[in-house]
Amino acid sequence: MYQYDTIDKAMLEDRAAEFRGQVARRLAGEITEDQFKPIRLMNGLYLQLHAYMLRVAIPYGTLNPTQLRKLAWIARTYDKGYGHFTTRTNLQFHWIKLADTPEILDQLASVDLHAIQTSGNCIRNVTSDPYAGATAEELDDPRVWAEAMRQWSTFHPEFSFLPRKFKIAITAAPKDRTAAKVHDIGLVLRRARDGALGFEVMVGGGLGRTPYVGPTIREFLPANRLFSYLEAILRVYNRHGRRDNAFKARIKILVAALGKEEFARQVEAEWAKIGDSTDLPDTELARIRGAFAPKSFETLPARSEAFETAKAADPAFARFVRNNVKPHKKPGYAIVDVSLKAIGDTPGDASAEQMEVVADLAERYGQGDVRVTHEQNLVLPHVKLDDLPVVHAALAAAGLATPNINLISDIIACPGLDYCALANARAIPIAQHIAEKFRDQERAERVGELKIKISGCINACGHHHVGHIGILGVDKKGEEFYQLTLGGSGAEDATVGQILGPALPYDRVADAVDTLVDVYLRERQGDERFLDTFRRTGTAPFKEAVYADVH
Amino acid sequence: MPTYIRIEDGRARLAEDAFSHVADDIADLETGGVILSLARFEAEGDRLISEGRRVGVRLASDEQVEALAYDLPRISLVALDFPKFRDGRAYTNARLLRERLGFKGEVRAVGDVLREQAGFMLRVGFDAFEPADGSNAQEWDAALRRYRHVYQRAADGRAPAFAERER
Ligand code: SF4
């Protein structure tokens, strides 16, 4: 893992000191809430329905045990004993007092964490593959590039006041776990025929009011030219993105308005003028790469007797392995998905105690590495097969071993009306009702991969457009209604879902999902996933069943 | 008169402004340097400069510095407007003025100019400021030297972290 050096640490200390002064000015009444708002927003501090919310950045979703323990300590000391992992792989504390925030930022800085650029119209935390460095699928370690982008984007003097927020995702595996195609920029590592490393560059994907799958504007960008090319994209956007209407200000609107060819042409023209003056030197890339060099993996047999014995003896463990354990690039190791989707709990929430359990396990059995996924779960990327039974037992004791990764109860939900001032409707209880319906793991496994994503309003923080089943909260004369979309995907086969029909009232949503699943089980052929069946049949059978039910 | 802060010898200082902003509809120009809109500069700039006047140009945030490319040698200063602090187009304009067009004269931040933006502005090449938040030169000086390090190359020539690390 990348270790912050004195320079990286000094950046965080200086930021924390600056914010301390700004909060003091606000608390002393020298500035009004209106004047303070842009300042606090530059530090990830939002005013929500009930309290301040502090959004802590978890750069490319990577944490070490010390950091996770500090987050647990903050949750216990300054919040109500838990935190919420978001679809941006950040952590939100929802019950924060303004006067505590300078101390919290100092505490975060002491373990190389911060809230920089977790809000505002700037380049946000980069999303990367939570299996980076552990999966055999990847061409290169995307964290190397994500860390380089973290540094490049931090306090970027030209691009900190863009027309709108800006999100970048990077992946190096054919199976996309970052939703790269619905980011402002999606980068996918590729190899040219001569073996050279580069990126496919997609620009202008996004969700919100007008969802788009980002078109590719360059099939192959030589890897060492990444930063000049990013500058060219950002500069074209900074100059030409709309600033008259916040809903039309994302880069996707500019790309759609110009057309991808014209947008690409403008970027290439600007890139030619920039030259390579802003590219990162190979020496710095090598330094960062060194920090992510493979851990000291032991040479182990591919088969672990302890693991096989436990699997044969304990059906619960076997079920966990089927759903939450993925192959590792090294024999004798595995990737473990830690579910934050216990049935009946809030998706993405983790208590201080749970964070500490994961931190301890990472330290003892996981090479000190923890990841956060954009699907609001955690990952222990390097666990020995031999250790899996004890790791499973410890996770299960902490309520973290729900064997439901990628299953119907592994639901993404935004905070919705329970916290968010922009919400039309609640998202969390809808997720809870659906999960309850599929509490029977046997049935959930029979249903197989099914991604449900719920947003409390059209801002789409819950990524509903790209859910296999998407659920969007809408307001109908002051009542909570929910629009269902089907067939979305945020993965390498990215698609925006289709609206099923008229919105449903709050208490019909979970039943409707149940009906959709029944239709799928009836219609499916062979080992089709829900998504495959839907793509084959279209909305008709689903629509008929759901609305027959309603009438 | 707005507060006018200049960077001199690396420090932000309160300074005497030798220029006045001239609105497009004012016929009589005061003596001394004038700052004109791009439209008025295009109409009257040649004449004023030939009369020996020092002329600056104020660019709105939707105007691009490339429009001034051929006039820069004759222009004393370029004022870049922030209609709202959130409108970041002037950062690109400033950086291109310095890095691409090689402008050595004053680049002044005008409009909704807040001390919170000081560090960013300095890095892209601004060297003069008319703050809109009542802040003074001491506060600007502190804001400008808040961060001991930077991560990127920009127009100020500061060595970024990756260059510092090589030393
Ligand atoms: S989708 Fe809407 S309700 Fe949900 S967190 Fe985002 S803004 Fe709030």
Keywords:
heterodimer, A: 551 residues, alpha+beta, Sulfite Reductase Hemoprotein, domain 2, Sulfite Reductase Hemoprotein, domain 1, 4 domains, 5-stranded antiparallel beta sheet, 18 helices, B: TIM Barrel, 8-stranded mixed beta sheet, 27% helix, globular, binds iron/sulfur cluster
Secondary structure layout plus pairing:
The complex is a heterodimer of chains A (551) and B (167).
Chain A: H1 6-27, H2 33-41, E1 45-47, E2 52-56, E3 62-63, H3 65-78, E4 82-85, E5 91-96, H4 101-110, E6 127-128, H5 142-153, E7 168-171, E8 185-191, E9 197-203, E10 216-222, H6 226-240, H7 251-258, H8 260-274, H9 282-291, H10 305-313, H11 315-324, E11 325-327, E12 333-338, E13 349-351, H12 352-365, E14 370-372, E15 378-384, H13 388-397, E16 412-413, H14 428-437, H15 441-447, E17 452-455, E18 469-476, E19 479-486, E20 498-499, E21 504-505, H16 509-523, H17 530-537, H18 540-550
Helix pairs in contact in A: 1-2, 1-4, 3-12, 5-9, 6-8, 7-8, 10-11, 14-16, 16-17, 16-18
Chain B: E1 5-8, E2 11-14, E3 19-21, E4 33-37, H1 38-50, E5 55-59, E6 77-82, H2 89-99, E7 106-111, H3 118-124, E8 128-129, H4 137-144, H5 161-166
Parallel strand pairs in B: 3-4, 4-5, 5-6, 6-7, 7-8
Antiparallel strand pairs in B: 1-2, 1-8
Iron/sulfur cluster binds next to loops of chain A.
